[in-house]
């Protein structure tokens, strides 16, 4: 049996709980960087490696090597009688699940049985965030409780991935409106809907995480990076956001050192903003809201027009120079995307 999980911590606890079989830790963050609906994997890995090195500081060579190694192991899955996917309810895990379901829908599965273990809560664990917060004994209680993946779930996973990683936002909006059998993937609909809230909004040009960051700083004043990350993450449990991802948000809000930056670090070197290998001392430095950040929060100016925009959201690459605009924005009142 082969188990595919997200995170070394989960692998370690599963082993401590007595899980039998092989484990493949899938190291990806498909919520960040470019995604491609029907990828030639080698091209996708290199495209993502180059972009994530630039945005998050993840070494491109390291990222590409891990990507190829895990794909080589995945391609040999038919050597197993059963394969179990362990992925949670949040967008981070769901995007990986959709990608893998798309992969299995398109290939010959031989005689391998496909199953999934996907939960959004656990008895006696308030504020459940993921498998990693469970003990080895709690994880062991889930052994054998996974659900077989049938043709309907494979087809839904393929469709959701195609919409998420495609280049047309209309496809996501249309899919969310369809009367699909979402129970086949019970967390996909909410995760995909949350994905839309990451687009710049119609009022201030802020996505959900950017808006929460500025609001948190306005409420509590300057906060150390790590504290800010924890507070913002708790406001968006559907994201499953890690610290390296969040440092990317902070870099963008800094505006690459422009005078119009929406946040500032106390005593920071603008050339050494946080990334993949962040200095622990930097994480203790207070982050504060700037005058421009307060103006954006009040709706007096727009973050996209102020700073410009260059970000991949799934398969959609939104770009705008300062003073310009992106073609799609999120309307919070209708919880959907609109053309600008």
Written description of the protein model:
The radius of gyration is 20 Å and the shape is globular. The protein has helices spanning 8-16, 41-56, 60-74, 91-105, 136-140, 151-165, 169-177, 188-196, 208-220, 225-235, 243-254, 291-297, 303-307; strands at residues 2-5, 22-25, 82-86, 113-117, 147-148, 223-224, 263-265, 286-289, 309-313, 316-320, 328-331, 336-339. The mean pLDDT is 93. The N and C termini lie far apart (49 Å). The protein has 340 residues and is α/β, with parallel strands linked by helices.
Number of helices: 13
Distance between the termini: 49 Å
Largest sheet: 5 strands, mixed
- Per DSSP E runs of 2 or more residues, the count of β-strands stands at 12
- Provide the low-confidence segments as ranges: none
Q: Could you state the order of secondary-structure elements as H and E?
A: EHEHHEHEHEHHHHEHHEEHHEEEE
Number of domains: 2
Adjacency order of strands in the biggest sheet: 2-1-3-4-5
Radius of gyration: 20 Å
CATH top level class name of the largest domain: Alpha Beta
Task: Please bin the fraction of helical residues.
Answer: 40-55%
Principal-axes shape call:
globular
Structural class category: alpha/beta
CATH architecture of the largest domain: 3-Layer(aba) Sandwich
Q: What's the overall average pLDDT, rounded? A: 93
CATH fold type of the largest domain: Rossmann fold
């Amino acid at each position: 049996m082969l188990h595919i999980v997200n995170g070394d911590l989960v692998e370690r606890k599963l082993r401590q709980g007595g899980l039998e079989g092989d484990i493949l830790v899938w190291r990806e963050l498909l919520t960040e960087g470019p995604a491609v609906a029907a990828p030639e994997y080698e091209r996708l890995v290199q495209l993502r490696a180059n972009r994530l090195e630039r945005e998050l500081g993840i070494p491109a060579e390291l990222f590409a090597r891990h990507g190829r190694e895990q794909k080589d192991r995945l391609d040999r899955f038919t050597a197993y009688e059963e394969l179990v996917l362990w992925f949670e309810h949040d967008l981070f895990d769901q995007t990986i699940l959709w990608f893998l379901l798309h992969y299995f829908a398109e290939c010959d599965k031989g005689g391998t049985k496909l199953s999934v273990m996907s939960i959004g809560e656990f008895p006696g664990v308030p504020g459940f965030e993921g498998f990693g917060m469970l003990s080895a004994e709690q994880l062991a209680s889930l052994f054998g409780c996974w659900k077989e993946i049938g043709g309907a779930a494979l087809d839904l996973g393929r469709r959701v991935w195609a919409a998420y990683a495609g280049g047309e936002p209309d496809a996501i909006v249309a899919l969310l409106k369809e009367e699909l059998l979402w129970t086949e993937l019970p967390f996909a609909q909410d995760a995909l809907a949350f994905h839309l809230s990451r687009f710049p909004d119609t009022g201030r040009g802020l996505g959900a995480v950017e808006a929460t960051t500025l609001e948190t700083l306005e409420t509590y004043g300057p906060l150390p990076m790590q504290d800010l990350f924890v507070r913002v993450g708790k406001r968006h449990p559907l994201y499953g956001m890690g610290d390296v991802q969040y440092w990317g948000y902070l870099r963008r809000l800094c505006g690459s050192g422009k005078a119009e930056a929406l946040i500032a670090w106390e005593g920071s070197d603008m050339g050494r903003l946080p990334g993949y290998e962040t200095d622990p001392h930097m994480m203790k430095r207070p982050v504060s809201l700037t005058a421009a950040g307060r103006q954006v929060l009040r709706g007096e100016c727009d973050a996209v027009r102020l700073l410009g925009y260059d970000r991949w959201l799934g398969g959609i690459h939104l770009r705008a120079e300062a003073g310009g605009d992106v073609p799609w924005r999120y309307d919070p009142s209708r919880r959907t995307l609109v053309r600008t």
